[in-house]
Amino acid sequence: MDGYKKNSLSLKGAVALGTGVMIGAGIFALLGQVAELSGSWFPYIFIVGAIISSFSAYSYIKVSNAYPSAGGIAMILMKAYGKTTITAGAALLMALSMVINESLVARTFGSYTLQLFNIEDTSLWEPALGVALLIFAYLINVSGNKVIGKASQFTSFIKIAGIIVFAIGALWASQFEFAYLLPHTTHSNDYPISSYIGACALSILAYKGFTTITNSGSEITNPHKNVGRSIIISLLICTVVYFLVAIAVNSSLSIPEIVEARDYSLAEAARPLIGNYGLYFRVVIAIIATISGIIASIFALSRMTAMLTDMELIPHSHFGMKGSIQKHMLVYILVIAITLTIFFDLSRIASIGAIFYLVMDMIVHWGVFKHLRKDVNANGGILITALILDLVVLIAFLWIKASSDIFVVVVSVIGIILVFAGERWFLHWKK
């Protein structure tokens, strides 16, 4: 397959890719939205999301360890369902959720960068900066695996260290007490149980970046062991970082303040600590994190969609472009991500991405349970638990969005129908 180099990603490089995608979107784009749905419980929602994501990761780890592939999720679905509409549709849903994630991170980059300037009307500049970031990430990806791996390791170290420094500084400045670890129960009755479960859906989206590691499976050194190791390490790192930052923000800002600044809540939390210097520090770390997140996500997605093209599961046209299919996919991904960045806001982008991902995730779990669990020596109980957890979270999230923003539900349902109907037609036409 064009553009694939075995052993071109080390264990550290794979972990950097996973944490790069997760931390880039999770903390900077979703923290405020999770707090809006769960109040002062939101730090613990990220822990619940980590637990649910760990169950989900089990399926990917077992299959990827047995059959490491640069196609990752596409390979898992092909092993489970064969060359069918289910395989093609679910893989395309994953690809779309990753593109949505990229536009989410791109707009987050715009919202944080604008905190450095006194601009009242950000409606134009936010998507414009996001588009500029996407183009920059495209240019980096064209440079090759070694550049991406080194850039991901460097930026991941800087942003994780910076975020931890911020969290510790925020806790120190707020004269942290262990009472801050306990949620405020005064207004706990204001949130229905479905709202907390809906918050879990968004927190799961913050962890789904681990799937980018499976999409680079055969390129990782010693993939039969290191794919699973890198997924576990990435999840552990992100869980610690998310919880520390959530506690720090919760100690610095009230829930209404977090919700009001939900697109840039970390920057707002830094402001009262050390004035504008705290704001600048936080924004710079956010910029580094979002840049590395976009680069890592586009890297993994271009390989996954190239695999789908080679499997003849999605249509492809060169449109007169030269080079490998993977290079062409970079262009297509860029165009779709730019379109979403321009026309959708952060909340809706995150919600649609969460719905697409949960549907795809359930299809993966059922496929592994039904067709692969003996081949990969997987525990059926864990697979069914992961499936049920995803289903409960999806139903609750759809219920919340149907009540507050029916447009998101309508777009998501129509999108899923079009994906599977289009793939059914395409596969029939190919035959």
Protein described:
This protein is mainly alpha-helical and 431 residues long. The protein has one domain: Amino acid/polyamine transporter I, CATH 1.20.1740. The chain is 78% helix and 0% strand. The mean pLDDT is 80.
Architecture blueprint of SSEs:
Layout: H1 11-38, H2 42-66, H3 73-81, H4 85-113, H5 125-142, H6 145-173, H7 193-207, H8 211-214, H9 223-252, H10 255-260, H11 265-310, H12 325-343, H13 346-372, H14 380-404, H15 406-430
Binned, the helix content reads: over 70%
Give me the Rg, rounded: 20 Å
- Residue share in β-strands: under 5%
Low-confidence sequence ranges: none
CATH superfamily: Amino acid/polyamine transporter I
Q: How many structural units, i.e. domains?
A: 1
Shape: globular
- According to DSSP, the number of beta strands is 0
SS element count, helices: 15
User: How do the SSEs run, as a string of H and E?
Assistant: HHHHHHHHHHHHHHH
Distance between the termini: 23 Å
Give the biggest sheet. none
CATH class membership: Mainly Alpha
CATH architecture annotation name:
Up-down Bundle
Structural class: mainly alpha
